């Protein structure tokens, strides 16, 4: 507030709304003017008007004094300008892109983006204008940028199709927290390039014909024809998915998820419930898994795992016991660690639970001794059983992680699975190994198509150890059938780098070094239209001279787009689950699909270190 006005020296306030004039009409007068003036809200406009009209001399004297004081007042120093860097809203970093990144990658709600004071001020400081102040406008901006990204994807896909490239299509079904079902779809190009097609709402029953029509229609939106541009479907082993493959004529080349197959093999051995029962129970109980025990088959580790679960709950359900364990760990110079409890649907959670226990077993025993609870500790025999369990399943978990890599090819997946079987066969005999090894072989064999044999031949240039004529004919027929089905595109293929695998490596090192090794350079050997005869000539030429013809090079490039697992859809579900939460359960279908696609877009850009 400023200083009190000079006009008040000739008035006295009567109350909050009125003031009385104290100016005497003449020098000899003893009585004042006593005129009451309204001053509501502290305004002095009425005071000035009264003095000007009734006491002109007094008013002029006040005006003269006021002007003199202003002229004598020092001129205030000029404020230094604050230097700020203003980033203009360029086309490559538009407001639409910034808002989309805040929502999709940073996970902020639309209301937070629209109403946050700090976000708005930050955008203003960067030079952005017309910043939306309600969530409806933010939603429109995000959907607009989503359409731009989808348009770019369509252009890239069309460019690949013009070069003769093909794709594989992976899909899976997901139910949101709002109890809505969605179909998630991806196009896979050769290498590690993936194009998300978004989430599509499934209305009614998701039968095989409905899903097949949905996949065909969605692919067509991107200019991709199911008959000639899609090499194979990638999905889990559900019966409805196999029926979809038959409807779209991709049954022979559909790749069932290997990671899911290994999961089934381990569950077949460990659990006395079917996988379907376990999954259904987990869907009904999405809360705390600690209250539910996971039953294990009668193996030599069943009792040890049951006792370990009891021990983990003993610490996890008491802050006092957890604090005692943390204190012992700090005393021994170890970082604070938390015991883990396994869950129903993830067998690797048993592995994580046992591994966490084995790392701090001495400290746990020390705490149990101090608390006179030694009866809860694991015996030496139980410890050996748990250690052997980890030793057996660690290679399995490592291969599953390998199979989930985005750029993994069928050839590398095949070699990784072969390496896993060889590793397990060298381990000491046990009841668990005796059951697990044949189950793994069975589940993996069920998911290998004839394309595995084809890609192995194309990469190595060899028919295998037996060098059977039957294998050669089967490979020739498959290549010819694939060539005819996809229209005989011709690709540009470059020779891959070769590397030599060192000897005496650990299992993990051998697994990392597996990579497809091209055995030859491109050769224009094709002299006639696609036929079994031309394919057989190219196969003979490859076996004798180590050189591939156009057909073999093209088919190898096509198969390179097939992934051994459908884990991309699982990544999509994880991302969508971050947007469709209990607090944001009413997120619309279009916005949910857009946020999932944009999250993948921004993560890819950041990974490639592209300035956006």
Any overview of this molecule?
- With 612 residues, this protein is of the alpha/beta class.
- It has 24 helices and eight strands.
- The protein has helices at residues 45-54, 56-72, 95-104, 110-115, 117-125, 135-162, 208-221, 239-247, 258-270, 275-284, 302-316, 319-331, 348-359, 361-370, 380-403, 410-426, 431-446, 450-460, 469-485, 507-513, 532-545, 550-559, 567-579, 589-607; strands at residues 11-13, 18-21, 36-38, 167-175, 181-188, 194-201, 230-235, 255-256.
- Strands 6-5-4-7-8 form a five-stranded mixed sheet, with helices on both faces. Strands 1-2-3 form a three-stranded antiparallel sheet, covered by helices on one side.
- Strand 1 (11-13) and strand 2 (18-21) form a beta hairpin.
- Helix 12 packs across helix 14 and helix 15 packs parallel to helix 20 (507-513).
- The longest helix has 28 residues, at 135-162.
- The protein is elongated.
- The two termini are 48 Å apart.
């Amino acid at each position: 507030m400023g200083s009190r006005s000079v006009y008040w020296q000739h008035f006295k306030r009567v109350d909050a709304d009125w003031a009385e004039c104290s100016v005497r009409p003449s020098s000899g007068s003893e009585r004042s003017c006593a005129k009451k003036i309204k001053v509501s809200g502290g305004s002095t406009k009425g005071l000035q008007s009264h003095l000007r009209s009734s006491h002109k001399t007094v008013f002029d004297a006040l005006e003269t004094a006021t002007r003199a004081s202003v002229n004598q007042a020092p001129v205030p120093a000029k404020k230094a300008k604050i230097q700020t860097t203003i980033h203009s809203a360029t086309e490559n970093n538009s407001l639409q892109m910034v808002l989309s990144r805040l929502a999709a990658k940073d996970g902020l709600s639309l209301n937070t983006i629209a109403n946050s004071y700090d976000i708005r001020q930050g955008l203003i400081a960067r030079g952005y204008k017309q910043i939306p102040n309600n969530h409806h406008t933010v939603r429109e901006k995000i959907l607009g940028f989503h359409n731009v990204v989808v348009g770019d994807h369509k252009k890239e896909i069309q460019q690949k199709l013009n070069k003769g490239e093909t794709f594989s299509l992976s899909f899976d079904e997901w139910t949101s927290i709002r109890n809505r079902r969605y179909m998630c779809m991806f196009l896979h190009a050769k290498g590690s390039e993936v194009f998300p097609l978004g989430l599509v709402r499934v209305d009614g029953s998701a039968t095989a014909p409905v899903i097949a029509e949905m996949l065909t229609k969605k692919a067509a939106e991107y200019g991709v024809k199911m008959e000639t541009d899609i090499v194979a479907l990638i999905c889990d082993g559900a019966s409805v998915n196999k029926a979809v493959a038959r409807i779209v004529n991709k049954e022979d080349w559909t790749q069932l998820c290997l990671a899911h197959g290994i999961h089934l093999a381990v569950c077949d051995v460990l659990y006395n419930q079917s996988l379907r029962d376990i999954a259904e129970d987990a869907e009904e109980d999405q809360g705390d898994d600690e209250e539910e025990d996971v039953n294990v088959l009668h193996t030599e580790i069943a009792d040890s795992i049951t006792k370990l679960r009891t021990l983990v709950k003993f610490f996890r359900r008491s802050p006092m016991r957890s604090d005692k364990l943390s204190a012992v760990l700090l005393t021994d110079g170890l970082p604070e660690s938390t015991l883990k409890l396994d869950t129903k649907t993830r067998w690797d959670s048993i592995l994580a639970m046992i591994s966490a226990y084995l790392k701090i077993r001495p400290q746990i025993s020390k705490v149990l001794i101090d608390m006179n609870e030694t009866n809860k500790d694991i015996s030496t025999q139980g410890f050996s059983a748990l250690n052997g369990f980890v030793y057996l399943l660690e290679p399995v978990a490592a291969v599953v992680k390998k199979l989930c890599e985005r750029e993994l090819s069928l050839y590398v997946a095949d070699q990784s699975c072969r390496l896993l079987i060889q590793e397990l066969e060298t381990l000491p005999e046990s009841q668990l190994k005796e059951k697990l090894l044949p189950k793994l072989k069975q589940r993996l064999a069920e998911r290998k198509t004839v394309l595995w044999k084809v890609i192995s031949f194309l990469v190595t240039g060899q028919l295998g150890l037996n060098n059977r004529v039957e294998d050669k004919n089967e490979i020739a027929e498959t290549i010819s059938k694939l060539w005819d089905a996809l229209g005989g595109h011709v690709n540009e293929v470059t020779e891959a780098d070769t590397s030599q695998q060192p000897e005496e490596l650990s299992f993990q090192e051998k697994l990392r070094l597996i990579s497809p090794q091209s055995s030859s350079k491109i050769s224009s050997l094709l002299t006639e239209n696609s036929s079994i005869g031309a394919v057989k000539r190219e196969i003979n030429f490859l076996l004798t001279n180590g050189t591939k013809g156009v057909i073999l090079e093209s088919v190898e490039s096509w198969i390179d787009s097939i992934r051994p697992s459908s884990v991309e859809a699982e990544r999509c579900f994880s991302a969508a689950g971050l947007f469709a939460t209990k607090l944001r359960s009413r997120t619309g279908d279009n916005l949910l699909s857009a946020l999932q696609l944009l999250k993948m877009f921004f993560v890819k850009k950041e990974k490639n270190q592209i300035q956006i």
